[in-house]
From TrEMBL:
Pathway: Amino-acid biosynthesis. The keyword Amino-acid biosynthesis applies. InterPro entries: ACT-like_dom_sf, D-2-hydroxyacid_DH, D-isomer_2_OHA_DH_cat_dom, D-isomer_DH_CS, D-isomer_DH_CS1, D-isomer_DH_NAD-bd, NAD(P)-bd_dom_sf. Belongs to the D-isomer specific 2-hydroxyacid dehydrogenase family. This is Phosphoglycerate dehydrogenase. PANTHER family: D-ISOMER SPECIFIC 2-HYDROXYACID DEHYDROGENASE FAMILY PROTEIN (AFU_ORTHOLOGUE AFUA_6G10090). It comes from the Bacteria. GO terms for biological process: L-serine biosynthetic process. The gene is serA. The keyword NAD applies. Transmembrane segments: none annotated. One of its GO terms (molecular function) is (S)-2-hydroxyglutarate dehydrogenase activity. Residues 4-314 form the D-isomer specific 2-hydroxyacid dehydrogenase catalytic domain. It holds the Pfam family 2-Hacid_dh.
């Protein structure tokens, strides 16, 4: 199979595919829709980060595409409904860069509270501006976290260790960590926080979450941080609140429109403002995080193409079947209707094939069954299932150690 890895994904991912015997092509930047349509034929696995958009047209061009790996947290750059309909599994790295984002945000909180961005800028300009004006310790101040998921909770823990008081707001029912306190509304959080940090996901309902109304509810002199999604914040409204002095500073790592490639021009209404830190979407861009993401996502992709494992897929029914050596495996993705499992087992029994293990799951309108047997599946069984109007795809593998230590497919996907 061929893997195409874009946007400078860590070399460990490419090496994992090569060890498993797959052809690998890597590219440093993202590709446009037209470019993807041209290069996807023949590609079985596509690896992307946040700048590559996988649309329905791209999916239509990817006739050989089995899986997409988002080597990042978000998956809103992929048409998930389209991928699901076509049976293309999508994986991401929901935990791997958590610590890196948290450390960046904590560093920004301290830097902004001490007004370090403008201090260092004055020094570079040759101006000695030794003053405590507007500079504060963070100890005892209140951090308001909007979105208390993986990153929000770890930020909560680390922030408390340096003396910040933590409150949080989340629409989901989240358990408070340490001494953090849940508040009932976003408005309550904004009114009480000296620092507001956004850690929400990229769902459409979060678009435009933060605008002039929300900034007006923040405490005078507060600090604002967005390391979540660019489309969540109205950057023009943020600029107005910085220029007016209502907010003391801001740190922004994500933007509604971001350059496609290294060195491309960057435009933002936030450029040139005092005590504003702008970073080029580097929250998870540490060597440690990228190495972990490369390892994690490539492992999930290889587990899927080599043995049908869908554990932690964001769009497929999740099945994490054990991999006994010396067995034969069939993965069957189908429309979720009553009687499919019974039909599979009937066909196997009539063919005299003994089932040694079976795992199944449903998600939305699809079901997924992984069946292990002690003998290779007869073509008649596969043909019967392929004729079913409920079949999305059917694949089979011979499980056992390969040169790279991973299971290997024994039959081309059908």
């Amino acid at each position: 199979m061929k893997a195409l890895l874009l946007e400078g994904i860590h070399p460990d991912a490419a090496e994992a595919f090569r060890r498993a015997g797959h052809e690998v092509e890597t590219r440093a930047g993202s590709l446009s829709e037209d470019e993807l349509v041209d290069v996807l034929p023949g590609v079985s696995v596509l690896g992307i980060r946040s700048n590559t958009k996988v649309t329905a047209r791209v999916l239509d061009a990817g006739k050989d595409l089995l899986a997409i790996g988002c080597f990042c947290i978000g998956t809103n750059q992929v048409d998930l409904a389209g991928a699901t309909e076509r049976g293309v599994a999508v994986f991401n790295a929901p935990f791997s860069n958590t610590r890196s984002v948290v450390e960046l945000v904590l560093g920004e909180i301290i830097a902004l509270a001490r007004r370090l961005p403008e201090k260092t800028q004055r020094m570079h300009e040759g101006v000695w501006d030794k003053s405590a004006r507007g500079s504060h310790e963070v100890r005892g101040r209140t951090l308001g976290i909007v979105g208390y998921g993986n990153i929000g909770t770890q930020l909560s823990n680390v922030a408390e260790s340096v003396g910040l008081r933590v409150i949080f707001f989340d629409t989901a029912d989240r358990l408070a960590h340490g001494n953090a306190r849940r508040v009932g509304t976003l408005g309550e959080l904004l009114a009480a926080s000296d620092v507001v940090s956004l850690h929400v996901d990229g769902r459409l309902g979060n678009a435009g979450l933060f605008g002039a109304e929300q900034f007006a509810q923040m405490k005078p002199g507060a600090i604002f941080i967005n390391a979540s999604r660019g489309m969540v914040v109205d950057d023009n409204a943020l600029r107005d609140n910085i220029l007016s002095g209502h907010l003391a500073g801001a740190a922004i790592d994500v933007f509604p429109s971001e350059p496609k490639a290294q060195g491309d021009p960057f435009e933002s209404p936030l450029r040139g403002l005092d005590n504003v830190i702008l970073t080029p979407h580097v929250g998870g861009s540490t060597q440690e995080a990228q190495e972990e993401i490369g390892y994690f996502v490539s492992g999930k992709l290889l587990g899927f193409v080599a043995a049908g494992a869908t554990e932690l897929s964001v769009n497929m029914p999740q099945v994490a079947a054990p991999q006994p050596a010396g067995s034969f495996r069939m993965g069957y993705l189908h429309t979720s209707v009553p009687g499919v499992l019974a039909e599979i087992n009937r066909s196997l029994a009539e063919a005299g094939v003994n089932v040694t293990g079976q795992s199944l799951s449903t998600r939305g309108e699809q079901g997924y069954v992984v069946t292990d047997t002690d003998a290779v599946l007869p073509d008649s069984v596969l043909a019967d299932l392929l004729r079913s109007p409920y079949t999305v795809w059917l694949r089979s593998w011979r499980l056992g150690p390969s040169a790279g230590g991973a299971p290997r497919p024994s039959r081309d996907p059908v």
